[in-house]
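User: Hi! I'm working on a homework problem where we have to compare a predicted structure to a textbook description. Could you give me the structure for the chain below?
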Amino acid sequence: MLSSLRNHPVLALMIPLIAGLLVWGFWPRPVLVEAITVSRGPMAVTIEEEGRTRVIDRYLISAPVNGITCRQQLNVGDSVEKDQILLSITPLQSQVLDPRSRAQAKAKVSAAQSALRAANERANAAEAAEQLALDEHKRLQPLVEQSLISRDVFDRATTETKTSAAARRSADFNVEVARYELEAARTVVEYSGAAADDLQVEKVEIRSPINGRILKVKRECEGPVQTGEPLLEIGDPTALEVEVDLLSADAVKIKPGMRVLFERWGGNQTLKGIVNTIEPVGVTKISALGVEEQRVLVISEFTSASELWNRLGDGYRVEARFILWQQDQVLQIPASSLFRYNEGWAVFVIDMGRAKRRMVKIGKRNGLTAQIIGGIKDGESVINHPSDKVEENRSVKIRNYL
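Assistant: Happy to help. Predicted structure tokens:
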């Protein structure tokens, strides 16, 4: 064997070379990893959701009576003052009478006139009967005092006097009723849709309840309106609040007075605010993926100076970030460095070029970073995004990014 190798010096050189290459190829190489240094810094746990602004005091102006509203001269954005006349409502015009209806109305006027005359005649007869009863009562008065007639005859005369007086008063009332019926019958004929327009009609003026601006115009054109029909919306856009639609599971974590930041609203600065109200009633909504969700409105107010957000108006979009927890000097690592191990959390620490598994105790998490309570110290290097190749005591090499 040795003699054959001496006869083939090239083969003698190739064998150790191939063996060396095989050893070099199968020799464990360090795993390239991304290293993160454990450090202290500010950390916050927040809930972020899209919201929108709304006017705190919004007034819906509705029609107080049935009638005809005038054409709306105000536009959205116009300023109004308290007690300023916004519009007016005139009564509905009477119905136009066709020839048959007009003839019937005139016939009712004639019948009412005849009824009034008949009532006057009955009143005159009742007055005459009353006068006769009074005269009879006066004539019997001295006779009963002299005992020339019985007391029963005088009592019947007294009763007749009272009865005739009541009948006269009733007849007078009937005259008044007949007079009012005649007036009503004449009104149907006089105040119809075909009557002259020079009659003075009463108008109902709608006034502004506050100093503010027009937010919405429900009705612009002139036309009939019914009681309760919305006409305008008025509010003060300088007094705004923010409503955020949150999942009910997130809403229970928020308390009144909690700080909130408003970002990406169009301005350069982040606006500050506090939570005012968490509404006690949830609403079922369908998400974009078709999943039913229970949503709750959380109402917040601005605490930043009004000069910073005076360009916002009603219904503007903002992104709200509710701060549930915040500290300045927190020992933390990226959440991507953690992995589950033995029903706990662990990380790979780089020690002398090798990966060492170490159990850690974590506190608050915000999705990106995690608070470290124990297990590692400030300044140590941990592997971020450990792959399946990283194992206990495995040689690792930190990847350099150019």
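For your comparison, note the following. Residues 59 and 68 are 22 Å apart (CA to CA). The longest strand covers residues 317-334. Good luck with the assignment!
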